[in-house]
Design goal:
Number of strands: 8
Order of helices and strands: HEEHHEEEHHHEEEH
Number of helices: 7
Low-confidence stretches: none
Helix content: 40-55%
Oligomer: single chain
Radius of gyration: 18 Å
Largest sheet: 6 strands, antiparallel
Shape: globular
Distance between the termini: 35 Å
């Protein structure tokens, strides 16, 4: 940039305070919020690049849209996506943000957080009813989130948009921590939640396992 070191550091500290950068005390790196400004985040993390081949294979097998999402504050952020080629395809694109509480990806990501983090999340949550199916009762939402690790997946059926059903499985790192989710979504009532569990889930678990190895 040609700027003085002190000027650069002050700029980075400003970006950190705004949530666009983070620091380990010495080095700075970008946060997902940068995607609101552009695609710099995609070039700074290996997750989207590593996930893309698995997403394309999974989308081909399921014939529905698939994506990888991460948790950013109280929302999920889609960082990679693949969808089957159709004349008309409606699906959330890379960079889309959705509320965590009513999306399957958000529930799977929240399920991987600590109890303290969940307490803080629910203390500031003001859920909005998008459809008649949206769960807005905090106690019910917490129950749904807490049962996710036992089930190994999370579902959202018509809670954000009527006729839209999605299922997500956690993507874990080498230490078992949930860092992202693998999601499949079907529009227009093409696939029921029972079909997603029976037909989609086995393929998604295999893809998640393979992606973890990659």
């Amino acid at each position: 940039t040609g700027l003085a070191r002190a000027t650069v550091r002050r700029s980075l500290i400003t970006l950190e305070s705004l949530g666009y950068a983070e620091s380990d005390g010495r080095n700075f790196s970008l946060t997902p919020r940068v995607m609101a400004l552009g695609h710099s985040y995609l070039s700074s993390t290996p997750l989207p690049r590593a996930a893309q081949p698995f997403l394309e294979r999974l989308s081909y097998l399921l014939q529905d849209a698939c994506s990888v999402s991460i948790l950013d504050d109280d929302e999920i952020l889609i960082v990679a996506r693949s969808a089957p080629k159709r004349v008309i395809t409606i699906a959330n694109s890379v960079g889309t943000r959705l509320p965590a509480y009513c999306s399957s990806s958000g529930r799977a990501l929240l399920a991987g957080q600590s109890e303290d983090m969940l307490d803080a999340y629910f203390s500031r949550l003001v859920p909005h009813r998008f459809t008649a199916h949206t769960i807005v009762d905090p106690a019910e939402l917490r129950r749904v989130i807490q049962e996710t690790p036992t089930l190994g997946y999370a579902l959202s059926d018509g809670e954000i948009e009527e006729g839209v059903c999605s299922i997500s499985v956690p993507l874990t790192n080498a230490y078992g921590g949930t860092v992202a989710t693998l999601n499949a979504i079907s529009y227009g009532g093409r696939v029921t939640r029972a079909e997603m569990i029976e037909r989609f889930l086995p393929h998604m678990r295999i893809a998640a396992k393979d992606l973890r190895s990659a």
